[in-house]
């Protein structure tokens, strides 16, 4: 149950962050805004690390496969794409499309056992849920 609430908080914060970043971009430009996001995220992580546990930073060199270390670079691209999509579509439409893309890609990752995740068998029910979500986007955008 805790995971459910954490996921809801995550989704809410992603929407708020996207709007904040888009507004900052209007004054600073997309890469300055994106850089600010990454720098402030680093500052929060460094502060949290100082106050909680202090895991070994050198352990990052032991991560295998090495491409798993691209999360931060992907994060910069995510920030850029969220800013651009909110500026073009608004927060609600952007969030819908982002969530659908997350669902589809996450399901494919599980279905094929990509990136070290456990493989999951195909489910018509899950595919149906994804299709219902796509129909929901169409209904939401219908004017």
What would you say this structure looks like, in words?
The chain has helices spanning 2-28, 30-51, 71-89, 91-112, 124-141. It has 143 residues and is mostly helical. It folds into 2 domains: 1-88, no CATH class; 90-143. Helix 2 crosses helix 3 and helix 3 packs antiparallel against helix 4. The N and C termini lie far apart (37 Å). The mean pLDDT is 92.
Keywords:
single chain, 143 residues, mainly alpha
Task: Give the arrangement of secondary structure elements.
Elements: H1 2-28, H2 30-51, H3 71-89, H4 91-112, H5 124-141
Helix pairs in contact: 1-2, 1-3, 2-3, 3-4, 4-5
Quick structural summary:
By secondary structure, the protein is mainly alpha-helical.
Please give the oligomerization state of what you see. single chain
Biggest β-sheet strands, sense, barrel: none
Average per-residue pLDDT, rounded, comes to: 92
Beta content comes to under 5%
């Amino acid at each position: 149950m805790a995971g459910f609430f954490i996921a809801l908080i995550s989704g809410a914060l992603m929407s708020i962050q996207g709007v904040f970043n888009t507004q900052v971009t209007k004054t600073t430009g997309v890469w300055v805004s994106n850089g600010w996001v990454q720098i402030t995220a680093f500052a929060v992580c460094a502060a949290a690390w100082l106050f909680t546990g202090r895991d070994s930073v050198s352990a990052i060199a032991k991560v295998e496969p090495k491409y798993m270390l691209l999360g931060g670079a992907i994060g910069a691209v995510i920030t850029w794409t969220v800013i651009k999509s909110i500026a073009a579509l608004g927060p609600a439409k952007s969030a819908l499309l982002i969530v659908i893309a997350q669902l589809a890609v996450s399901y494919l990752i599980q279905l094929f056992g990509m990136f070290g995740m456990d493989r999951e068998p195909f489910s018509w029910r899950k595919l149906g849920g994804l299709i219902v979500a796509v129909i929901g986007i169409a209904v939401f955008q219908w004017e």
